[in-house]
């Protein structure tokens, strides 16, 4: 039986087997569950871990993580996001940046608006999906080489 593994935290629950990778010297590979301290030293440490994918995105919130990522990118003068999403200039307003991300990637959603004359379906920008894509672009290296520490 194989150990369940994955690219996100919380998949590996136990060590089920070992894999021999070398005979001389005898070396085995074990995939063990990652362990985080029960209390993080600071919020910033937690945000860095979340950006790296060590903490599940929904536990922090994609929109909050995207806002912190934008802060880091601007602080390090990494403006690759401007070119990637067609922003005319750098911005520290995450909602403004996510608007461009959503427009560039076509991230919209249909919503029903109640009016005095009946229901109307409208297409609006999906900011949460845009934040998720912004994080994915960072993790894939599409926003430049960024060091969080």
From TrEMBL:
Coiled coil (UniProt feature): none
GO molecular function: GTP binding; GTPase activity
One GO CC annotation: mitochondrion
GO biological process, one term: mitochondrial translation
The keyword GTP-binding is annotated on this UniProt entry: yes
Record InterPro entries: GTP-bd_ortho_bundle_sf, P-loop_NTPase
Keyword RNA-binding carried by entry: no
Keywords: GTP-binding, Nucleotide-binding
Protein name stated in the entry: G domain-containing protein
């Amino acid at each position: 039986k194989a150990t369940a593994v994955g690219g996100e935290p919380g998949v590996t629950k136990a060590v089920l087997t070992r894999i021999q990778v070398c005979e001389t010297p005898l070396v085995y590979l074990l995939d063990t569950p990652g362990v985080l301290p029960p209390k993080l030293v600071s919020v910033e440490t937690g945000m860095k871990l979340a950006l790296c994918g060590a903490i599940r995105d929904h536990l922090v919130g994609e929109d909050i993580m995207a806002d912190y990522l934008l802060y880091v990118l601007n602080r390090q003068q990494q403006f690759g996001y401007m070119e990637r999403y067609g922003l005319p200039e750098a911005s520290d307003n995450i909602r403004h940046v996510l608007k461009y991300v959503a427009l560039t990637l076509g991230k919209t959603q249909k919503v029903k608006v109640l009016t005095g004359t009946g229901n109307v379906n409208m297409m609006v920008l999906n900011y949460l999906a845009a934040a998720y894509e912004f994080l994915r672009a960072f993790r894939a290296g599409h926003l430049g080489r960024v060091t969080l520490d």
